[in-house]
Amino acid sequence: MGLNPCMEYVSALAYIARNKGVFVIAVLPSNWELTSWGENEKSWISKLEKNTDILIYIPFNRLTEVNLNSRVKESYHTLVRIVAMVIKDITCHVQDEGSVQGIGILKNPSLLNNSDLRKLMKECTSARVGLGMGQGKEAIFESVENAMKCPLLTFDLKEARMVIVTVSGDVCLYEAEKITQNVAFAANFETSILWDVFPEKQDAVRVQTLIVVLK
């Protein structure tokens, strides 16, 4: 969603959904408008933060650092793909009797403990996302490093309450341990680090790092 007058209605919908037991994640892919925000816009943002479980900020202006030659239309398409990947990997719907339905991490066979994941995410309020790619022999380590250096991560990993690392590729136990160590070193000792693997038969991996900051 972008920043516009409809945002007040989005905040109201988020409030209704959350009161019905839905785990609400909102994505705010807007940054160029920051300088023109008035009191009304800031008030809408504040309401949205209160009415969602997690508000993910994706700074649109930093997409130029990912691809300097991208056109406006291409940048919007890139933004849509990033938002889709985030929603695919972490969206969950908490229903009655504690059951969970979702996609990505919370639906596919997973190494993550869903109850722990939901508990940690409910303790947080805002998030950033970093995406990295790698190919060849060192693909996994390369992709993790690229994800941690992604321009979309607008703050230091040491500020994170939780880091979720999702790897798409063929990962051995040693590589998984090394990934965790690398992320832990970049973060701080109090940061909860969760990781998951989706095996794919290809010579490349996609690592998605979701940074969640405690309220």
Provide the succession of SSEs: HEHEHHEEHEHEHEE
- Give the rounded overall mean pLDDT: 68
Tell me the fraction of residues in β-strands, as a range. 15-25%
Total beta-strand segments: 8
| Backbone structural class | alpha/beta
- Anisotropy-based shape: globular
Name of the level-1 CATH class: Alpha Beta
Rounded Rg: 17 Å
CATH level-four homologous superfamily name: Tubulin/FtsZ, C-terminal domain
CATH architecture label name: 2-Layer Sandwich
Please, how many helices?
Answer: 7
Beginning-to-end CA distance, first to last residue: 22 Å
Low-confidence runs of at least 5 consecutive residues: 92-110
Oligomer: single chain
The domain tally reads 1
Sheet with the most strands?
A: 6 strands, mixed
Fill in the CATH topology.
60s Ribosomal Protein L30, Chain: A
Strand order of the largest sheet: 1-2-5-8-6-7
The level of helicity is 25-40%
